[in-house]
Amino acid sequence: MPKRLAPTASADGGRVRILDRAIIGGRRFFVGLSASRAATCGAGTWLVALLFAATGAYGLQRGGHMPVAIETARDMADAAANLAGFRIANVNLSGQNHVTPGDILATAGVKPTSSLVFLDAEAARTRLEELPWIKRATVQKLYPDRLDIQLVEREGFALWQKDGKINVIARDGTIIAPYSDDPRFIRLPIVVGDGAEKSVTEIVEALSLVPGVRDQVRAAIRVADRRWTLKMRNGIDVRLPEHGLVDALQELAVLDRDKQLLTRDVTIIDLRIADRVSVRLSDAAYEARQVDLKAQSKKKGGNT
User: Fold this and answer.
1) φ and ψ at 2, to 5 degrees?
2) What is the pLDDT of residue 68?
3) How far apart are the C-alpha atoms of 220 and 197, rounded to whole Å?
4) Can you name the residues that pair with 193 across neighbouring β-strands?
5) Structural contact between residues 197 and 169, judged by C-beta atoms closer than 8 angstroms
6) Which residue ranges make up each domain of the chain?
C-alpha cells in the first residue's frame, strides 16, 4: 500500500496566512492613524506654519534683510496701535542743554509714526545714556499718548589736550565733545598729557584752594602719570611733587606774595623736594647774575 502522508501546510498557504495577518495589521494601523488625524490636524497646521516662518526667518537672516523685516513689522504694529489711539502725541523733554531735541528723539527711537504701546522705554533710556553729554536719563510712558523724557547732563569740567586735540571732559574724565569757541568752555582749566583726564579732579580742586596761583596758570601738564607741572602764563614751569600737592601750592603762593617769585626772571621753579625750592634763571638773568658776581669780586679785590 502506498504510504499515507500526514497533511501539512503548503508554502503558498503559509504565504496567504502571513499576508492576511499583514493586511489586518495594516488596516488596524491606518484606522488608528485616521482616528488620530482629526486630533492632530490643528497641531500639524501650526507645525507647518512654524516651519515656514523659521525658513523665512533663516532666509532673511542669510540675505541680510532681517533688520528691514523687523522694522517693517514694528511699523505695522505701531500703525495698528495708533489706530487704537496710542499714537505718541505729546513728548515732554526736560534737563537738556547741550543735546538737541531732535537728537534725543532719534536716539530714543521716537518717530512721528511711533506708538506708545510698542516703544521700549528701558531700551530708549539705555541708548540715551550712551550719549556723551547725558549722565542719566528717565523715560516714562503715560497712556494713552504721552511720553516723558527727563535728562541729567554732564557738565564741562576741564579741557584735555592730547596729540594736538582738545576735548571737553567731565569731572570723571569722560570725553564730552571736541572743544569749540563756545563761551561756556573758554574759561575751563586746561590739562595736558596721558592720564591727565583721569586725575583732572585732583589738580583742579587743589588749584581752587589757592586762587592766587590758579589765576596765573595756563595749563597743568601730567608728567609720567605721577605728578603735575604747571605752565604759567608768563612761561615759567612750576614742578609740583607727587604728594602734598596742596601744601606745595600754598608754599608757592607765600613765596610769590613775599618774594614776587612768579614775576622773577626765572624759567623753572622746582617744588618736588620738601622744604626746598630750586629755581632756574633764564639765560638773560643768568648772564646778568654772572656780571654782577664778577663786579662784586673785583670790588672786593680792589678794597683789599
Assistant:
1) -70, 145
2) 65
3) 11
4) none
5) yes
6) 68-153, 158-287
Yes or no: domain 68-153 corresponds to CATH 3.10.20.310: yes
According to DSSP, the residues that pair with 38 across neighbouring strands are none
Cβ neighbours of 169 (radius 10 Å): 25
Q: Is the pLDDT of residue 206 over 90?
A: yes
Q: Enter the DSSP assignment of 115.
A: B
Share of the chain above pLDDT 70, in %: 70
* Amino acid of residue 64: G
Question: What share of the chain has pLDDT > 90, as a percent?
Answer: 63
| pLDDT for residue 192 is more than 70 | yes
Fold of 158-287: Rossmann fold (3.40.50)
The conformation of residue 193, written as its DSSP 8-state character, comes to S
pTM to 2 decimal places: 0.69
Location of C-alpha cell 502506498:
2
Give the whole-angstrom CA distance, residue 216 versus residue 294: 35
